[in-house]
Design brief:
mainly alpha; 3 domains; three-stranded antiparallel beta sheet
């Protein structure tokens, strides 16, 4: 706790920093005295008094749930995307708001309290991912409480987290089946080229659903990814059911080269869309989207997956449980197995780092290491 004395004309003002208000404003204790000696004595006495009460000033009315809510409103709302904020709020609402820990004063929260909450969540069937997601909120909120000098230390740092489940084996389209998938996709009356583009570029679904015609370079030789389509978890009255946001990382902003054949398909897509515009007339709400519904609005990924993608997979004789993200994984796996540089693959995928690519596709790189070791062994010890 810090205190200062400043001269104000013929008097001296004592100021002590006490922490922050619920809206993040600094709280101070101030008193003006006539002499410097009196000010120094008052400062020492007041600091001793506050130290006796506790070196950290806490608000007894602030419950654990109130702190989390305040952190979400004041801090998280300025740092994270709208959809992430809604997910955070949902976790707190489901697991903390009605739990006994939510009614405890922040100053009384212990690592054991938080550990008990997580254990009960696991017993209720919440997976490790759900626990870890809530922990991210709790840890950051308590970190902020420490900065606000409301608690002396963060109890969440002493909690054991459940181990994340290993990724289930990815469902992939084998490179040999790529032509079958493309042929089946192009039989669709609408959006067939969407799936071809997905399998050609490895884009995330939220990226290709946000593409506009302006994102394509001359003659469709390249395309630039610079935004994503976001659909709020809860739609407020009078607000759009979707919005566009910047990608999470700088690396996600990227320009990808396109195969000339894909460029021809994109031209055909634009021609088809122009016909739909003429048919819809003034009802067409043009957002410049490459992949839009008949009236110009963005497409719903869930509908695309449950209707079009499953139909395409069935037509091609492929695993119908393959998802839009599986197409992205298929692209990456195919490139890595073809000995493409992991740096290049990471750039194509828009990963924040090469390490992330290596972690996600460790099953592929491990196989490549074993194969390389086998080749080296044959050179050293003979054999085919």
């Amino acid at each position: 706790m810090r205190g200062y004395i400043t001269k104000r004309g013929q008097s001296y003002r004592v100021e002590i920093h006490l922490g922050y208000s619920p809206d993040g404003k600094r709280l101070r204790h101030r008193k003006t005295l006539s002499t410097k000696k009196a000010a120094e004595k008052y400062l020492r006495t007041k600091l001793d008094e506050l130290e006796t009460e506790g070196s950290i000033r806490t608000r007894s009315l602030d419950t654990f749930h109130a702190l989390l809510t305040r952190w979400l409103d004041v801090c998280a709302s300025q740092r994270v995307r709208a959809k992430t904020l809604e997910n955070y709020q949902g976790s707190v609402r489901r697991y903390v708001a009605d739990h006994p820990i939510g009614r405890q004063p922040v100053s009384s929260i212990t690592p054991a309290d938080i550990q008990t909450l997580y254990s009960e969540m696991l017993e209720r069937g919440v997976g490790p991912h759900g626990v870890r997601k809530l922990h991210a909120v709790i840890r950051q909120a308590l970190d902020q409480a420490v900065k606000w000098r409301e608690i002396p230390a963060n109890p969440a740092l002493s909690v054991d987290l459940p181990k994340a489940k290993k990724n289930r084996e990815m469902r992939l389209i084998a490179p040999a089946d790529f032509p079958k998938f493309v042929a089946a996709a192009l039989e669709e009356k609408r959006n067939g080229v969407l799936w071809v583009l997905a399998l050609s570029t490895g884009m995330r679904p939220e990226e290709y659903l946000a593409l506009t015609w302006a994102d394509f370079h001359k003659d469709f030789q390249k395309v630039t990814v610079n935004r994503v389509l976001v659909r709020p978890v809860k739609v407020k009255e009078g607000k759009p059911h979707w919005t566009f946001e910047a990608p999470k990382t700088k690396k996600s902003r990227r320009t990808l080269a396109l195969d000339p054949q894909l460029g021809k398909l994109m031209k055909a897509q634009r021609a088809q869309q122009n016909q739909e515009k003429l048919k819809a007339g003034s009802a067409y709400d043009d957002h410049g989207l490459v992949f839009a519904n008949e009236l110009g609005g963005p497409l719903y990924l869930a509908n695309l997956r449950n209707r079009e993608l499953k139909r395409i997979l069935k037509r091609a004789g492929l695993d119908e449980k393959i998802t839009p993200y599986c197409l992205r994984h298929s692209v990456a796996t195919s490139l890595l197995k073809d000995r493409e540089s992991i740096k290049v693959v990471s750039s194509i995928l828009g990963h924040a780092s090469i390490r992330l690519t290596a972690d996600v596709y460790s099953h592929v790189t491990d196989d490549m290491l074993e194969e390389a070791a086998g080749k080296l062994g044959r050179r050293l010890f003979g054999g085919v």
